[in-house]
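Hey team,

Sharing the Tripartite ATP-independent transporter solute receptor, DctP family run so nobody has to redo it. Sequence (336 residues) first:
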Amino acid sequence: MTSTLRRTTFKALALAAALGLGFAAPYAMAQNKTVIRISTAAVPEDWHAKMWTVFKDSLEKSAPGEFEVQIHLNATLFKQGTEPAAMARGNLEMAPISAQDISKIVPEFSIFTAGYIIRDPDHQQKVFNGPIGQEVFKPVVQKMEVTPLATAYLGTRQVMLREDKNVMVPADLKGVKLRMPASKEWLFLGEALGATPTPLAFGEVYLALKTGTIDGQENPLPSARAAKFYEPSKTVVLTSHLVDAIFLAYSTKAFNALKPEQQKKVVEAAQAAAKYNNENRIKDEKEIVDFFKAQGMKVITPNVAEFRKTVQEKYQKSEMAATWPKGLLERINAVR
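Structure output:
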């Protein structure tokens, strides 16, 4: 081989290395990482969005270089409600799912969409992190092919009315047109509270309150503040009728593909994320009542025991309750 040919061959190999190996090395490193795509409808300012950064940071600390966590907010990756199917198909690794999402496939889970089943955030964590949680999550894994890893507190729903009204028991809500999300489960809850449930899109609630199309709405107080529902309203009734949750879920197929030690680290990261969310959400809710008082709103603490008794009785007589495992309600109520 002549010196000119050797030089040409060397340059060609060098160029190939620059174009091929030079780019292949980082690509190979990325390929060696387990990708975790997270899809959520949460907006960046929400604790439910910020908790995913805690998940990512926790995993990077406990398993450096093993995972590539990709966080997609604002439902930019998958539309809200479609995530469970995407995880079952293997097109998505993680997402928060609701009790409403689960009950579509696992009807007995509808007990957690009912009013006054969960008393407060502490009760919520004890129920889902204890024997009951282990039991009710089994059919979720089997039927939905998603594995719940942690329970995040979504908020406690309260009633807000456009007029100054003294509400102490369900009978005091008779005739009140209360906006509810448009599904039979939500409408039943509104009726059980004693009101006249009125289905309406969330984006239409402010104007409907202002014009009197509806008499009130019910949401977690942070959501009501963010949407400025307090501006056309005068009364907050702390009914605490639904202590809501979302479950940090992982595709079962993807989760089973992880090594046992990786599974442990992913679960720990999910639990750290949920804990971060829960602590900040609870702190917000404690402080937010003072905010509404500062806006000149009347804040009422009704007879919650009477609300709970009335609402649970209505659920127990409903078709919905026929799907609930026998004795489960009593067991949930007994958790302290």
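The chain has one domain: 33-334.

Ping me if you want the raw files.
A.
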